[in-house]
Please model this.
Amino acid sequence: MCQYHALLLNPENTIFCGTNVQNHQEFLGMRYILLFLIAFNFTLIPAKAGIDVTSLPPDSALSLALTRIEGQNISLAEVISLAIDRSTMAKDAEAMLASAHGNLNRERGVFDPELFGEVNSASAKQPSASPFSGAAVLNPKSTTGQVGARITLPIGTELEASMVGTKLETNSTFSSLNPEYDATGSLTFKQPLLKGFGPSAWANRDQAQKGYEAAKLRYEQAMERVRAVAEQSYWELYAAERDVAVSMVTRDLALALMQEADLRVETGLVGPNQANNAKVFLADQELNLLDAQDYVSRASDALGSLIGQRPNGFLRFKTVDKPPQVAKAELQEEVVARAMTENKELRAAELDVEGVKAFARAACWDALPQLDLFGALGGNGLAGTGRDVIFGSDTLRNDMDTKFGNAIDQALNRDYPSWMIGVRLNVPILQRGPQGERNRLRAEVNRAEQRYIQTQHMLEEQVRAAHRELEQGQERLQLSEENVKASLDQVRIGLIEYKGGKTTAFELVRLGADLANSQRRYSRTLVRTAKAAAELRVLAPTHE
Model:
């Protein structure tokens, strides 16, 4: 690569290595010579003397060129509001929260009480050879109804209360009640003592509860991330617009420099290589301007995709806000400590571990033998319309005349009580299935804990990196401003020497490249620090 000092043979005759210098990093940086141009009014008007370039603030030179950039004005507040309302990231977070809430309701529904009922009628004709059947062909008719409620308690207890009523009608002459009403009320229970008890019964609900709480935290984290991404995309567009403004003015500078170089060649003050330097410089700045315009369009498109909206009547969006001033950063250890307690993604990861532990606790109980205690407590009732039964020469009188309600009252009052209790044991011989599941879930707990630790380490690393960006932002900005001022002074002196014939156009380009680099660092420092502040608000949110 050509070295600058090797290219200057004498002030009047410069050998220019165009291809190599065109690819040189400093030469590519020439699109940022804004202050140089505005100070000497190379844009469309002749140069004016008597302007103190060093007295201009670094950003004042951008204002003129920025006004020439067209686009739909949009504020940072609008971008954040639209991103929260329309971005796919926000919609996905809302859907995940709704899914977790639905899963929790489903698991809670397992313990909801349930009502049940059933009614059926039956009729049959049954031939009979018994003289005691009461008819040669029996025609019994029955209507049976059952109602009740059942519930499963979180500890695994199954309770069921039911009432069964039956109406019997028959053509048998030996039936003393026709119709006959039977009622049976019962309260049954089953209580697992080993497998299926406690944690085994509520594991799914417990895991769903932890999952929903984690989803809420992740939703809040996603909203904070949407705000941060919106802000970062906005500042990215802001930086791209500054690049376009710099490239526009630098292109105009290159044109003015080429015109002056041609004039100097015509008057014999410089050699033809001076004009060649200016021409190559102009061509390079035209390409830089095209690249900058393409980049700002892509930044605008990315912003539009984020907020779900296209510019109205313009090709791109245009920023109206400026990056905020850098605030004094907190102590790094304080920010890290706050992130460890307030970061919602980390807290959600902790809840994920608790959810897996709920399944692991259930698997430990399910690996035990099945031992259930069961029982029932009930009562019976009988009612109906009595009729006489003639059996040979005897007549059996029945004056009963009660309704179905009487049978139900008897069953509920336990006039004719019943009870039952027992124990059921089921012991698989090998228990490989339940024990294998228990061991698998224990391993899953270990994996979840390691993922949580990894999340902690990654969060701390990200917080420290973002904190360094923010902490050093003010110092970077101050150094960038000083660098711009020093470069401005170099350009001012270089221009005076160029007009006096003491330096070449190529040397002036080199000085302009230094100014371009300093201006680029100044612009990027503003955006870099603002993006770091937005990132830190997500990683270590303040306690609400």
